[in-house]
Structures are given as structure tokens and as C-alpha cells.
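Figure S7 source data.
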Amino acid sequence: MLILGIETSCDETAAAVVRDGYEVLSSVIHTQIALHAPYGGVVPEIASRSHIEMIPRVIRKAVDDSGVSFGDIDAVAATYGPGLASSLLVGLSAAKGLAVALGKPLIGINHVHAHIQSAFLAPGAPRLAESLPLVALVVSGGHSAIVHIGDDGVPRILGQTLDDAAGEAFDKASKLLGLGYPGGPAIQKAADAAPPGLRPISFPKGRISPGNPALADLDPELCFSFSGLKTALRNHLERHPASTQPEIAHVAASYQKAIVDALASRVATAVRRHPCRAMAVGGGVSLNAALRARLQEVAAEAGIPVYLPPPKFCGDNAAMIASLAGTGFGVTGDAAMLLDADPSLSF
Ligand code: KG4
Ligand code: ZN
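C-alpha cells for the predicted KG4 complex:
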């Protein structure tokens, strides 16, 4: 089964060809970071225009690089949510057109579910189906969620952010510190330069009170809030401006620690409360070295393995889309052709 995957949910235009769910024959990712950097974040209008410009070239390159031809493709898979509506529409429409032209089925994929699948594209990783039940953490510029996947392979959200995503928290802090966009790598680099042994500045843990109306049926102890963290940083910088490199490094390291602590402690709780044989992580923030190290510790304490995507599949990519479709997930049949972009798609 050869699947051509297409991903345009945010600011990466991506296409990939994957055989039988796990063999990645090609993966092309065109990032728009340079276009959005001057604004300190993704500008939806700029993103969708760039997707329209790039999508034909990215798809053609993915097919060329894979060594197969368009005629060999068995199905076309595309992300239909969650994400930016105007970005999602470009990839979904391209996929619909291609499926019709090739006379092949279309498969609609949930982007957050696909990020979990990406952890199983690491060399030597088992198949996701062999690691169930599992607890997964998806952390990116747009999402922060703890997901449980039961023996049936169906994902269920256990907890999520009630405001900003973890990546967004990195990006906003980086802007406040004048470190540029994207913020995650910039904060990590600054934090790496902090002298060891310095007492971290205390930032809020973002705990959620059980009565919070935004919780619905989610577990408050598995949910996050990152907007208070950003405000606390702004207040801190007003009182103690960080201008020298050691001062910036100290603030960056403390802020990174606060985010890593918040994520890792919730994952540890989720693993204790829900049946699981493994942990999986996905999304751009899973590139963060401090987070990777802490999650390895959480997994070791729980006596289970943790699967992390290889760096090229941490951020948005289409290999994870084609991979998930190739393992039998997604919207298929006539329903796929009727799919609209769904910016707030959940499970
Ligand atoms: O998954 P992704 O590429 O796109 C979205 O779906 O959002 O994630 C991008 C996010 C950005 O917020 C970026 O700052 C963050 O991932 N990020 C990191 C690191 N590298 C990227 N956050 C923390 N540490 C990193 N090393
Ligand atoms: Zn993503």
C-alpha cells in the first residue's frame, strides 16, 4: 500500500510517500519560518498564500524522490484538522483534486493523532499497535495535549492546555527576551548557556482548579495553562530587566524548566492513572533536549519505554500523515470527499 500524504495545517508545506504505514520513501518539508519571523509568529494569510504557491512543487518532489510514479500511488491522505482553516484548505483541496485525477481514494487525517504516529517512525521503534495501550504527549506551537490510546488504537484526550500551547509559550517568551522566532530553539540555546547551579527563578506551575468551566470532562491534574507563565515573565522582566547574556540565560533556563516541569509532571500522573505499556511524544516542542531528558526519566521511573520522533519528524511533516493513513486510520470513502477543513478537530 503506497500512500501519498499531504500536510498544510500551519506553516509547513509538506508531502511524503510512505509504503505500508512505516517505510518512508520520501518526505519533503518546505518551511515558511523566514516569511513569519519578522512578525514573531505565524500570519495565517501569508501562510495560506505560500502553501498555494508551494504545494504543486512539494508534491511533485515527494513523488520524484520516492522513486515511484503517480500511477503507483494507492491512496492520497491529507490533514483536515486541527490547524489554521485557510492553510488546511490548501492541502485538503490539493489532495481531493489529486485523488480524483488519479482515480484513487482520499483519506482524511487528524493532525494531532498523526503527531503521535511520528514517534513510531524512529529507526528501531516498534509498530504503534505493538505498544498499546500508551500515553502520548503532543506538544507544538498549536497544541499541548496528553492522549491515551487504548488497545483498540483509538485516541482519547486525557488533558490539554486551556489557553496557550507549550510552543506558543516558548515563542512568546522569546519575543519578550528579544531572542527571535521560533522561540523554542532560541530559548533552549540561551538556557544552555546558563551557569549550572544557579537557583531558578520561580514561575507559576499553571495548575488548573477542578471547578474551571473550560475543563468539561477532562482531568484537571492532566491539563495545563501557559498564559499565566508568559504574564509572570513579563512582570518579572519589568522588575528585573534582563540585558546581559548571563541574565537572559538565567531567565531562559528558569522559564524552560517551568514548561518542562509542567509537562513532565502531568505525563507522570497520566502514566500512573491510566493503563500503559509505553509513552510516545510528538510535535515541535519534542525537539527540546531538556524535555526529552525529563520524559526519559519519567519513563524509566514507570519502567516503560518512551518513543520520541527522529528530529526531522518532530515538527509538522507529511510522513506522519501517510503513515497514520497506512495503518488504517482516518476518514475514508465518500465521507472523505465531503470533508471540510476543521480548525478545532478533536478526537
Ligand atoms: O510542530 P511544529 O513544527 O508546528 C506546529 O504544529 O505548531 O511546532 C512548532 C513549535 C514552535 O512553537 C517552536 O518554538 C517549538 O515548536 N519548538 C521548540 C523547539 N524547537 C521547536 N520548543 C522548544 N524547544 C525546541 N528545541
Ligand atoms: Zn503540528
